[in-house]
Design brief:
- Belongs to the MAGUK family.
- Keywords: Coiled coil, SH3 domain.
- This is MAGUK p55 scaffold protein 4.
- The chain is an alpha+beta fold.
- The chain folds into three domains: 80 residues, Roll (Pdz3 Domain), CATH 2.30.42; 74 residues, SH3 Domains (SH3 type barrels, Roll), CATH 2.30.30.40; 229 residues, P-loop containing nucleotide triphosphate hydrolases (Rossmann fold).
- It contains eleven helices and 25 strands.
- It has a six-stranded antiparallel sheet.
- The chain is elongated and about 95 Å long.
- Bound molecules: adenosine-5'-triphosphate (ATP).
């Protein structure tokens, strides 16, 4: 038997308790890393509680013990029987990118909602404890001084996603996955209706909920990272890309697309397009050499990995725009893409900034933005963020064009010169080759 005194001072104890199903004993289920109990070094997972502040816990439910603890202030005295085999922590810290949102206060299954760590997709988490098969402990890298919180384990979060997915009403929704795209336009006609339970890559429900990441610093001699711009139709992706390349064509370049259409007299093979036969194009598609492709007026157009590689091999920074479903294909250890989401500003701001701007859609070319175009841009941006936000390394709001261009330039240099979180598999692949 041991007596342990902890001074609470309005902070949580930093431990959870449970009741043994057979013996009814109340034991410490886990000690939260960096919390009061952990810092004291006096409480361990497995310790059996006998008394709290002189009150016997015999026959009490865990909730009743928690109540006693919640009502106690200042010094709390535990009488306990220490666990005989203290768990030896041989855990290595792991970093992951959250691929889903998690709100502990909305999760009835969490052992202690107050000890939960809420996170949003795309956030980088430091996992400090995976001892429990269901509940891990983690911190956000943006706040490493905080004490850890509970998060569902990989396995548990996957299960939750699956349950959530199947309990959703069966409703058709618009996804941005399409087999068609039109050069220069991301048209409404492209958006094919699919079903919320479709098994395609656009549905992230069954994807791994955490992606292991590592800190990566590009060596000056290494190839540049591919810069991918993503955004809803008309937001200004092409405009920003064009301006970036024009600012220094010796540093920045786009990838030359492939097409099956006939070369025009003033065009040069490899400058405007690579002109190839339909058979060659289709072979490139089947051998996964196209990042994205589509058909326009009976001809195929696409951006190939070879074309991107050619720019990178010249030592330049390759800047392309992609439909969001192409992100997954581009995410390889070879290209190490840095994904920048170009986000529209509010509709009221766009009414001002887009007054004299012109757009191209399926239905009209070089027309002024209409109110519904702005609305559609906003809706489409929301969908993209909801579905693909976890992949965005940077978000730039394209309000003032000059400012957005300056932000893009700085983001592109940041991507090449500063350390970044990248999927661990990209770096493991490097060391294997
Ligand atoms: N911040 C801005 N302020 C004013 N006009 C802008 C701004 N950004 C882009 N534009 C203008 O909006 C129009 C559409 O831009 P852009 O063609 O680059 O869109 P996009 O995102 O590439 O979409 P799409 O692929 O459909 O062409 C262009 O006329 C462009 O000059």
């Amino acid at each position: 038997m041991r007596i342990v005194c902890l001074v609470k001072n309005n902070q949580p104890l930093g431990a959870t308790i449970k009741r043994h199903e057979i013996t009814g004993d109340i034991t410490v289920a886990r000690v939260i890393h960096g919390g009061l109990a952990d810092r004291s070094g006096l409480l361990y997972a497995g310790d059996k509680l006998v008394e709290v502040n002189g009150v016997s816990v015999d026959g009490l439910e865990p909730e009743q013990v928690i109540n006693i603890l919640a009502l106690s202030q200042g010094t709390i005295m535990f009488k306990l029987i220490p666990v005989s085999d203290r768990p030896v922590s041989n855990q290595t810290t792991m970093y992951v990118r959250a691929m889903a949102d998690y709100w502990p206060l909305q999760d009835p299954a969490i052992p202690c909602a107050d000890a939960g760590l809420p996170f949003k997709k795309g956030e980088i988490l430091q996992i400090v404890d995976q001892n429990d098969a269901l509940w891990w402990q983690a911190r956000k890298v943006s706040d490493l001084s905080a004490c850890a919180g509970l998060i569902p384990s990989n396995h548990l979060l996957k299960r939750k996603q699956r349950e959530f997915w199947w309990t959703q009403p069966f409703q058709p929704h618009f996804c941005l996955k399409s087999s068609l795209f039109f050069i220069g336009t991301k048209s409404r006609a492209n958006q094919q209706s699919c079903y919320a339970r479709c098994p395609s890559s656009c549905c992230t429900a069954f994807a791994a909920p955490y992606e292991e990441v590592v800190r990566y610093q590009r060596h000056p001699g290494d190839r540049n990272r591919l810069i991918v711009l993503v955004g809803p139709a008309g937001v200004g992706v092409n405009e920003l890309r064009r301006r970036l390349i024009a600012s220094n064509p010796r540093e920045f370049q786009s990838a030359v697309p492939h097409t099956t259409r006939v070369q025009k007299s003033y065009e040069m093979n490899g400058r405007e397009y690579h002109y190839v036969s339909k058979e060659t194009f289709e072979n490139m598609v089947y051998s996964h050499r196209m990042l994205e492709y589509g058909e326009y007026k009976g001809y195929l157009y696409g951006t190939s990995i070879d074309a991107v590689r050619a720019v990178l091999d010249e030592g330049k920074i390759c800047v392309i725009d992609l439909e969001p479903h192409g992100i997954q294909i581009a995410r390889t250890h070879e290209l190490k893409p840095y994904i920048i989401f170009i986000k529209p500003s509010s509709i009221s701001c766009m009414r001002q900034t887009r007054k004299n701007a012109r757009i191209i859609t399926d239905y009209y070319v070089n027309m002024k933005f209409k109110e519904e175009d702005l609305q559609e841009m906003e809706d489409s941006a929301k969908k993209m963020e909801a579905q693909f936000g976890q992949f965005f390394d940077q978000v730039i709001v394209n309000d003032n064009l000059q400012e957005a261009s300056a932000q893009l330039l700085s983001a592109v240099h940041h991507a090449q010169d500063e350390p970044q979180w990248v999927p661990a598999i990209w770096i493991c692949s490097d060391t294997q080759t």
